[in-house]
Amino acid sequence: MSLPPEAVSAKAAPKAANRQTTRSQHRPRWRAASACVGLAAAAVAFGSSAASSATQRPVPATPTLDRVPGTIVIAQAAISSAQLRRRLQRDGWSKITVDTNDRFPDQYVVQACRGADRFRLMVNRRGQFTQRLKLGRCSGASAGSGRVDDAPRAVSLNDVRTRLRSDGYRKIRFTDRTLPRYVAEACQRGRKFRLVINRRGQVRDRSRIGRCETVADNDSNTGTPGRPLAQIRDSLRNSGYRNIRFTDRQLPRYVAEACQRGRKFRLVINRRGQIRDRSRIGRCNADNAGGGQTAALSDIRDRLRRNGWSAIRFTDRSLPRYVAEACRRGNRFRIELNRRGNIRFRQRIGRCRGAEPIQQASLKPRDVRRVLRARGFNRIRFTDRSLPRYQAEACKRDRRFELTINRFGQITDRRRRGRCRSDDRAERVSLPEIRDLLKARRYYRIRFTDRELPGYAARACRNRNEFALRINRFGEVRSRRQVGSCVAPERGFFTEPRIRRRFDINLLRRQERIYADDCQDYFEDLLADNTINFAVASAQIEEDSFDLLEKLSFVASRCPGTSIDIAGHTDSDGSRASNQRLSERRALSVVRFLQRNDVPGSRVRAIGFGEERPIASNATASGRRANRRIEFVVNWDEG
After folding, report:
1. pLDDT at 566 (0 to 100)
2. What is the 3-state secondary structure (H, E, C) of 431-445?
3. Following DSSP, what letter does each residue of 384-421 receive, concatenated?
4. 587, 490, 542: which is closest to 162 by C-alpha?
5. Within 10 A of 168 (CB to CB), how many other CB atoms are there?
6. Among 432, 431, 461, CA closest to 445
7. pTM
8. What is the distance between the alpha carbons of residues 467 and 459, in angstroms, rounded to a whole number?
9. Each residue of 305-351: pLDDT tens digit?
10. For the chain, N or C: smaller number of CB within 10 Å?
């Protein structure tokens, strides 16, 4: 029995449409769309013809084009790994690593975190999950929160570039700036690397791709000259090295031999004074390790005078070497002497003008007692008054200490010897004595707001900042909080010059902690002759300020229980609004540097004052330079 021509054509139409759809999966999307239109037309034709020939013979149903009823999948393109990563991030996943699997080439293998758990995911090329397996906990999950910081704030390219420069990279060129990661090429020690950096500025992957053009190009694109050997020598001495001898002074790196704790090392130092390699090469002999006969300071001074030196002033008396400044033939030198009084290093630092500078006189025991009381000590008893140093026993916060004080009133060594009994505490200090103690601590405009025992409350100014103080009956400042600003004190208000303390990193490391007032003194002494420099009209810190900021970070990390305000100030150039924003950005840059150097972010705060608090006239270049500054203000509350 033959079928009519209409039925034959209607029966053949689904097969032709099916072949056309199969071929359209390998064609562009516009051809697939045209195939869909043809398929729809064929389906309409088949419906009409089937209705007319239903009485003759039943026609089989048209086969479906997909495996899931109700959907049609036509030539869906596979997603890339970058698209898959962005899709997972939108869905709340973090710490995503995407890889391919040789056993399943049509699937991605993904490891990612969600909440505090880590999973292994199998994802097909269409972005659909085929397997999900829990592996364990994510590292970095905050306890109790149940959530990982999966979307941290991305650092800017300038911050990433500054961080790479501080790590020794040069010739930095970003090849991919699209988040969530950066890709850059940079040089380090004559080798060229490809770096993959996350949004926080941390190098997550590094692969060597060649060599830089010249070894000297490590620092050539910055134009920054190498640090002088004298400064590198001082930095090594602050790190505890002695008997330093440079065996290779040819840039871009130095090679030196030095002793530390009786062991001898070979050091490879870059042009910025940072130790890049250290290898032990033996032991130091008795003379190198600090043995041998030590000459007295008076004998060394007499020997220098016999050799024609004058205006001799010792700036560092800590063995195994001495550092002094002296004049000879109208020139002023910085000289380093060994323990026998022999000059090992000499550097010209200027000229001697007119008469010899007046040497700083030694403090008498009563003056040292006053300085110690201003530091919060009581029950002071001297056990040795013979110069060049004093020894005493004193109490502070019901703890007893044995103190070693140099002739200028600075505590060079402190050892705890027990606790002070309650009856060992000093008698109650009167208000005039408390006023004198505060004045010795460089406070002015002192005004008591509460005079009732067991404590006092006062308002006082220091370094042009006004503070609210709480003082106990023994004259110790128990808490301090900044409440405003003050004008500078009147000329001649402080009758005695301020005693500057020397920054000795080894001495600070031996101390358990730095008390709050001492912490403020260290900040003021470090910033008295040094300035944190920034690029013009920018918040980017210049590299010559990194050493100063590292010292400030070390002091801040040794002052627990305090909060530090980083105050930024500018000159009057530009508008008031732009200066305010610039001061806040610069203070925030310093805070970020401190946080990268192990200072908790909860203890530091950035404040910008713009041009509101000048300390000099903005009419002169020197005044504007003085007004562009960063100040460290310490607040504390000891209960």
Report:
1. 94
2. HHHHHHHHHHCCCEE
3. E--TTEEEEEEEETTEEEEEEEETTS-EEEEEEEEE--
4. 542
5. 16
6. 461
7. 0.39
8. 6
9. 877 888 888 888 877 788 888 888 778 888 888 877 888 888 888 77
10. N
